[in-house]
């Protein structure tokens, strides 16, 4: 899979549109657009960092949800 396709899939996995994704990761909108369109190459290391951040935040959210569920069942 090409890097631009991986970036698009990562973005879509967050449920964010392009603008939201750019704001969240502090990537210039035109840069991200050029990456997804294949006009510029996405650095591989950046894909790995974005993927890591997404995974870790989803993990963190799951832990928060589990903690909230535990508190709700105690009440």
Protein architecture, described:
The protein has 75 residues and is an all-alpha fold. The protein has four helices and no strands. The chain has helices at 3-14, 18-25, 29-37, 44-74. The N and C termini lie far apart (49 Å).
Descriptors:
75 residues, 80% helix, elongated, mainly alpha
**Shape summary:** elongated
Measured as a percent range, the helix fraction is over 70%
Radius of gyration over C-alpha positions, nearest whole angstrom: 16 Å
- End-to-end separation in angstroms reads 49 Å
Mean pLDDT: 90
The tally of beta strands, per DSSP, is: 0
Task: Give the DSSP E fraction (strand runs of 2 or more residues).
Answer: under 5%
N-to-C series of helices and strands: HHHH
Low-confidence stretches: none
What can be said about the biggest beta sheet? Answer: none
- The chain-level structural class is mainly alpha
How many helices in DSSP terms?
4
The gist of it:
The chain has helices at residues 3-14, 18-25, 29-37, 44-74.
Which helices and strands appear, and what pairs or packs with what?
Elements: H1 3-14, H2 18-25, H3 29-37, H4 44-74
Helix pairs in contact: 1-4
